[in-house]
């Protein structure tokens, strides 16, 4: 697939004559960032916005700013940006839509995730219906707002102003321009301690220094109580902001969360069977699996014991909904540190057995399965198994929800490379014969961005003209194949 700028040039330059001198360079910049399919969607979007008739500023803003958004969040968001602009076209002026487009590079950079950017677009659409006069001043200071607030905080700040000044339009404008005491007070209230986007690079280097490889981190809106980090498709999802806890900084909490998630990825070799297990039993097994992977990580990097221990040993309130939760939290501490004891002899015996056998069983997650069920039965015998809702509220600040433990899919980073691409987005490349190519292929002229590519190594002649062809497809459109990666041992600098 190839995209020809000349197909769009006349219409775009007609709506915005100043593009005559910049359109070529803008197109080339976009082509370096986007795939052919993404580039086509980008140009079609610009064409569609030009046809809206809402002014040239909107078209110019889209052409100039969307490549920066794609660079941060991927080209899947192009369609969302176009749809957002189209929706706003019936609700506000072209100038405000252009301001929204201008705000997207900042939003993409500060939010750092496609889903969060979509949430930002949704918020803009909601505000256009609830407080349309506040959009212009808010978009004018969006840099300051997103440097201090998460998306959830921005949403609460904006919704408060929209409700409080619904019938006071003058103060509504002042609120969204951060010119009122209420606005500044609400901003301070919603401001979180440490934003993920400000620590992401540090966390990446931290994990790379430990394990000598890359991990993929993404922020996730932690806008509800009880949010836990998680791993999905080998991507580590961390909260978009965290607060200091008992004198432990947000950066240290992020490090503990990231190191724990990385330990799961690094030391998990096979999924744990969830067959015939209740959710509560899975939770208990997950608690032991957390201890197993942390043991392995601490063997490699002893300093992690202090990092995780400082968070596990935070003094918590004894006023809980179920006393079994306190026993579980104390048991988790005893698994981490053999010197910590429980006020329960059977639990002490189980913790001691864990420490006695973990050195031999550290690589075997069946050990976690067996001991986790044994722990569950101890609580069941004493009728102290909390409900799943209470179990999930356990106060271990850096632990994840353990979905990765049950959904694990083996992945060979040495074979596939450090830059992991989820299976749903991975291109499939097959090497086939000319007969298979002729009989089975859906589209022999598909572009390089097709989901499945068939490669014919032999000469393949066009067959529509009953054998009269003299030039093969290989000669017309063939490309020299890119060689397979080759591992040079002398260039392997992994730690």
Q: Tell how many strands the DSSP assignment holds.
A: 7
Task: Summarize the amount of helix as a percent range.
Answer: 55-70%
Biggest sheet layout: 3 strands, mixed
Span between N and C termini?
Answer: 41 Å
- The quaternary organization reads as single chain
Give, in spatial order, the strands making up the sheet with the most strands.
2-4-3
Structural class: mainly alpha
Which word captures the global form?
A: flat
- Low-confidence regions: 413-424
Number of helices, where a helix is a run of at least 4 consecutive DSSP H or I residues:
24
- The total tally of domains equals 3
Please state the CA-atom Rg, rounded to the nearest Å: 28 Å
Strand content: 5-15%
Mean pLDDT: 86
Explain what the structure shows:
With 495 residues, the chain is mainly alpha-helical. The chain has three domains: 187 residues, no CATH class; 209 residues, no CATH class; 51 residues, no CATH class. Helix content is 58%, strand content 5%. The chain contains 24 helices and seven strands. Strands 2-4-3 form a three-stranded mixed sheet, covered by helices on one side. A two-stranded antiparallel ribbon has the order 1-5. A two-stranded parallel sheet has the order 6-7. The two termini are 41 Å apart. 34% of the residues are buried. About 2% of the residues have low confidence.
